[in-house]
Design goal:
single chain, 346 residues, Alpha-Beta Plaits, 2 domains, 9 helices, binds ligand 2P0
Length: 346
């Protein structure tokens, strides 16, 4: 009987659809710079919190021997050329690992605007890695899914897990030890929120990928960042282990400031934060200064939108309401890692 199964050509194997849901993550020790662009290996360890389902991607994948090419639908539209190429390249990697040569249907929906500085590539490639690996018959562990997701986008390694997550830069030349691990479950952070102030939901002008490559190449300040980020990483990691937000608030802001300083030091300079972003940063610093505790920490990604981690969301929201130029405020909880659903998108 067993030998009969092995006699079947690969195209007769029945592939099923799989649906994965992954949430975005917002880093508190930032990833900005690669030591290997092809393998997507970072220059430093980073740490993030995974967001709740308000910032998530649901992706269904099915390999289908009737297809003459991959079919990719993103947010109800055919993927454009660039998006298609990135998904197709990623699927090629999955096909090579699964030793199949069959094209796939991919349908993916985000709950938030793509490329608005809200790290959609993180949730996008984590969900794609989870759904595509299962659909291809690869029975991957979470660690293996994190390694696979990295080939789509570095920050996607971290979206595999919930709570506080560390992406270990690793040392191996082949990237086999560069993946994420969970530092602390979301259950330990029930009182923490990320208040996201959307200032601009348009697609960013300089992609993170292009921007960080330019920073590594041209910024002198970046060399200083590489020396300093390790200490900040340890401070934040210890604060997370001790479940102590106050102990890491200043360091979170320092790391964001440092990354944006390196961006500004890039030739030509990269500027993501605008006047409203800076007003928000000042307001958060004042809030901590006026109270006896550190109740908030801002962090900015590759865009003007502010992420404010806080144990007092009411206070932060009321201060944000007084700042002009904010289009929308989202209050996010610390969310869970990748999970799977029987509700498929096709
Ligand atoms: C982070 N960012 O740690 C940092 C902070 C943006 C600023 O990870 O080239 O989209 O696909 O690996 O993951 C954005 O970079 O870049 C990012 P690639 P990715 O979250």
């Amino acid at each position: 009987m067993l030998s009969c199964i092995f006699l079947f050509p690969i195209s007769f194997i029945l592939f099923m659809e799989f649906t994965a849901i992954a949430n975005s993550n917002i880093a508190i020790i930032k990833y900005w710079g690669k030591r290997d662009e092809k393998l997507i290996l970072p220059t430093n360890n980073s740490i993030s919190f995974t967001m709740d389902e308000q910032l998530s991607t649901t992706t269904t994948v099915e390999f289908d021997s009737n297809l003459a090419r991959d079919e990719v639908i993103l947010d109800s539209k055919q993927a454009d050329e660039k998006e298609f190429a990135r998904v197709h390249d990623f699927l090629n990697l999955v096909r090579a690992r699964a030793r199949i040569k069959i094209f796939a249907h991919v349908v993916s929906n985000n709950t938030f605007p793509k490329a608005a500085g809200l790290a959609s590539s993180a949730s996008g490639f984590a969900a794609l890695a989870g759904a595509a690996s299962k659909a291809a018959g690869l029975n991957y562990s979470e660690k293996e899914i994190s390694v696979l997701a990295r080939f789509g986008s570095g920050s996607a390694t971290r979206s595999v897990y919930g709570g506080a997550v560390e992406w270990q830069k690793g040392n191996a030349i082949d990237g086999s030890d560069s993946y994420a691990i969970q530092l602390s479950s979301e259950k330990n952070w029930k009182n923490l929120r990320n208040i996201i102030a959307i200032i601009d939901a348009e697609k960013k002008k300089v992609s993170s990928r292009a921007g960080m490559a330019e920073t590594v190449k041209t910024s002198k300040l970046f060399r200083h960042r590489l020396e300093a980020v390790g200490t900040r990483f340890e401070i934040v990691r210890n604060a997370i282990k001790n479940n102590n937000f106050e102990a890491m608030a200043d360091t979170i802001m320092e790391d964001s400031d440092d990354m944006h300083a390196c961006m500004a030091d890039t030739n030509p300079p990269i500027v993501y934060m605008n006047e409203t972003s800076h007003k928000i940063a000042k307001t958060v610093r004042q809030l901590n200064g006026d109270s006896n505790e550190k109740i908030a920490a801002y962090t900015f990604d590759a865009g003007p939108n502010a992420n404010i981690y806080t144990t007092n969301p009411k206070e932060v929201k009321s201060l944000l309401n007084e700042i002009e130029g904010i289009k929308k405020i989202i209050e996010c909880k610390i969310g869970e890692g990748i999970h799977y659903s029987n509700k498929h998108l096709f």
